[in-house]
Amino acid sequence: MKLYNTLTRRKDEFVPLVPGKVGIYTCGPTVYLFAHIGNFRAYVFADTLRRVLEYLGYEVKHVMNVTDVGHLTSDEDTGEDKLDKEARLEGKKPEEIAQFYEQAFFADAAKLSILRPNVVCRATEHIPEMIELVRRIEANGFAYRTAVGLIFDTGKYPEYALLSRLNLAEQQAGARTRVDPERRNPSDFALWITNQPNHLMQWDSPWGRGFPGWHVECSAMSIKYLGERFDIHTGGIDHIPVHHTNERAQNFAATGKEVVVHWMHNAFLVIGDARMGKSEGNLVTVSELEKRGVSPAGFRYLCQTALYRMPLSFTAESLSSAQNSLRGLVDFGRNAQGWPVKDAAWTEPYRQEFKDAVADDMNIPQGLAAVWSLVREGNQRQDRAAWDAILDFDRVLGLGLGKLSETQVHEYKVSDSSNVTIAVRFVASPPGTPAEVVALAEKRQAARDARDWDAADHLRRDILDRGYVVEDTKDGCSVKPRP
Ligand SMILES: [Zn+2]
Question: What global pTM score does this model have?
Fold first, then answer.
């Protein structure tokens, strides 16, 4: 099997450290909000990776963390803890926020047939392990104290930028908002944060009462559950320049080793030319998709139509087409169940094609091509052997075809009107666009969809008054700062 490795920037032959066994660590959700389908692309990817490895006969131990402390609203060790902030907003305890959104996350994950990882570990339940890891980092001479707390000295690790391949100028640019004059290098980051009396979650430590920096939990928990050298670490490409770069530096500082063998990253789900995310104002959750007539399996099918390393275009058209393909597959299954198995031998080349495709850096789109070849030839031969092969492939695809062939997918209808509703969401905006402007653009799009041209025109002028121009696109509209 070959897997692309972000660290080496090439497809490497995958050889597990222990024959027949694979350890995978996946950066999990920060549980202060509902996860959106952009987040879920990353989890569908990690789940599919696990399924591919199991399909190829490996025994997999999949570990995923749940971030319930220490993830600040900015990557630069400034801003508030996301959990703390949400707790204040909702007038609840951080634990209540964490519990609620963690449950919601796993409920949505289950709808998407994402298998529950073998180990799910919460940051707040691993504070002693984190303190121990930071203690080792400090003892090895990779940390110094400032008024903020204990800081990692990235200058001590010559390979710091190897994963991100960023040069120093880019790192400096990335750290432009950092105002801490005590830092030795712009890329230095907090291991333990002290002197934050308003922070709700605090623990005693050798460096004073406080809380861990966000990156510490993933190093501490991956090493605890998978050891000081393990096979695969996954996450979205947004984690490469800061979170995973810092994890890797901590790993080395604590253990003297390159802990992770393969780093694997999925590309974004994109709407127009904008990535889906909270700051872009285009969040869609699994429940919202369902309300718009898209089955979770339809969304999962869409995820499987693109290579994980390529951006996945999310439009009303691409969704509709994925859902229609899935329905076509289910209809084929219903027919095929009434046929006899005549001769399984003719399916063998397709089984081989599928296996080769998924073993080649998880080329699931190529695997889907084998599925549709089976559908075509199965229809000609009227042979259930085709469906049996497809059900076998579904161990990787995770579309739940065994169950879907009963009734489920037909309960979902992506009608023309629901396409229009989905289109309301397609407001592309550059990062940093005020939420108010995005909201106005969404309202304007809704007005256009309803053919209320007067209202749409008023809203366009409101947007202009705020310094932004709106342009209509194939999938909705985009807002940009006024030139
Ligand atoms: Zn992580």
Answer: 0.83
